Each structure stands twice: as structure tokens, then as C-alpha cells.
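Can you give me the bound-state structure? Components:
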Amino acid sequence: MLSRQVAAKLATYETPFYLYDIDLLNQTLDSLMSVARRYDYKIHYAIKANYDKRLLEIIRKHGLGIDCASGNEVKCAIEAGFDPKTIVYAGVGKRDKEIRYAIEQGIYAINCESIEELGVVNDIAGDMGKVVSVALRVNPDIDPRTNHCIDTGQADSKFGISYEEILSSVEYIRSLKNLDVIGMHIHIGSQIRELHVFENMCNKVNVIVENLTSLGFELEFVDVGGGLGINYDMPENEPIPNFASVFAIIKQHLQVGKREVHFEFGRAIVGECGELITKVLFNKTTATGRRLVIVDASMTELIRPALYGSYHNIENITSKEEQRTKYTIVGTACESTDVFDENVSLPITKRGDLLTLKSAGAYGMSMASRYNQHDLPAAVYSDEL
Ligand code: LLP
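Here's the bound-state model for the whole set.
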């Protein structure tokens, strides 16, 4: 873990901040892209996981495209130098101006998530005198066996179009003359650790692609989304996710002929390369005997524990104390749910000590807010220390 090795240097920066391990990011991308190239898979980075400019530059240099969820994410990707032809844009609720912007920029595909959206994209494209490449985001009804807050492909989810609705709308979709349906897209959820889920996903995708093809859709690509999880419990044991295992499963079970296979990983690429570094402000004990450590970060820098009950491993990186005790780690925000974790075993922890919240590279900074007028956290990069 980087922060412990460089703890003395970190003491000179104003906390809280995100620390990014640039070597680990490069190694993760090398590992991902070397296996992807072996199978000829195309990888898009889900920019919602972290839109830090420095990270995006490194990701671009490794040859990934970008998966976006808003017009501003498309803009951010283009400003970071990504070729629009490597950008895809999904999202259940695209505003007209976002659709127009994506069409103007000539991105690779707009992944449509409702039949009504297909009609609107068709109309906007018609007004602009263009034919637009789209993909159908299908809801495959799969249980990804992850935290319910972050599953996206079960029958009742807001994401994607139900397969049944696509089948009953085939004539309508084909009548949309300003659309070129070039792909099929699914994304079943995030932080997936049970890899057999990807096998189930392939079995569903095979049937859907075969049927769409027999209905006359000429699909160039099949985008199977992201979702590969990371090891929040023991990040040191698995700093780089096992991309080879996932790709081997996909290779074995996905039968989509010569069509391109696309992935959109977010967390698996940037999750482990980021830590949130925070300073201890105060200690106190509640009337019930709970020992609180109050740190200068809060849910405004890292909302995952408060929002989903997510776990981040926490360590004191500066204490020299031998004796350990159990603490509840809380933040500065005016919210009772602003608790990073309870029963955390740490060495005796004092005002001024630095703590790290590990595996915070994904959905940390990108979900930060300015609640309580907090400043957004800064970024510190390992190669600039
Ligand atoms: N593709 C689509 C269409 C997505 O909606 C997402 C994530 C991804 C790709 C990337 O998924 P990943 O590889 O990162 O699992 N804020 C939550 C996670 C929300 C994920 C939203 N969609 C968290 O902090 O756990």
C-alpha cells in the first residue's frame, strides 16, 4: 500500500485528499490490455468511476475508449483527448441537448434505454440531417449477486429495455430511418465478485443476439458492460483484478460470431489505485462508551459507506503505538450516517494522525459533493511526491 510507504511526505499536504498510485494504475492497465488484445476485445473505461484528468490521460495512452452516462461526461472525455469514435453513451434519462451534443460530436454509439428514447433520438437525428449509430441496451434480468443498491440488470430495474418490449417493438424500431442499430448493450451491475455470474450473462446474451439477428438487426458489436469487482476487504492481496479469469469465461461462453465484444470497466481499472487520506481531528467517547475518532474527511469526499453501507479498509499510517483498540470512524458532515466504519481496530489514534481509506479510486472523487460548503478534495499523484 502506497500511503504507508510515503506517509512522511503526505504529512506536508493539506488533508483530506485522494492519493493516486500511478504505477499501480499503469500496471493494472497493462494487465487489462494485454489480455484484452489476446482476445481482440475492445475496452471502454466507465468515466463515471473517476474523471480525474491525469488518470484519464494515462487511460487514453493505454488505448481504451470511454463509456459515458451524461453529455458532460462525453464532453469531459473529448476534452481529455479521446477520439469521439471511441466513445459510447448510455443512460436512462438523456436530455435533448445531451443527445444533440453526442450526435454533433459523432460518437461511436448512443446506447438507448427505452423505446421512447429511440424515437426521440431518431427525431433529433432527423432534424440534424444525420443517421445515428445506436445500440439497444437490453435488460437481461440477471441477478449479479452484489449489493442491491448497485445492481442494474434485474427485471424491475430502471435500466435497459425489457427483451419482451424489444420483441414487440421490432417493426417500430425498424421504421426509425435516422437510426442505424449497430449494437446490443447490457450492464448487469457493479462490484461483481462471483465470476459465474458472467457465465449466466453470456448464456442470456447469446440468445438475445441470436434472436435480434434473426429479426434482421445487423449488430456490429455486443457490449457486455463492466461490473468486475475489487477486493475491498484485503486490497493488498489483490491490487490488480483478475481480468484474465473474466475474459476466459467470456471467451468460453459468449457465442456472438465475428461481432466485436466490448467491455466497460470502471471500478476494476481505478478502484485500487486511489486512497483517501484524512487527518484525525478529535477523539471522544459517547455516553454509551463508543470511542469515536473524528476525521477531517466525510461523506462529502467519500459517500460510499453512507450511501450503500460499503466497506473501505482503514489504517492509521502514522501512529507508532503498539497497543490497539476499536474505534468508530466518523466524518465532519452534519449527518448521522456520516460514519466510515465501526469497530475498526487501530493502534491508539491521536489528533494529527493520518488515516487512509483504501480502494477509494472508483466512485470516490466522482461522487464527492459540496454539502456543508466543503471544498472538493484535492488529488496527489505518486509520481509527483
Ligand atoms: N457501464 C454502465 C452502463 C454502468 O452503468 C456502469 C456503472 C459501468 C459500465 C461501470 O461499472 P463498474 O465496472 O465500475 O462496476 N457508485 C457505485 C457504483 C455505480 C455503478 C454505476 N454504473 C459504487 O460506488 O459502488
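A couple of observations. The first helix runs from residue 2 to 5. The chain has a mean pLDDT of 96.
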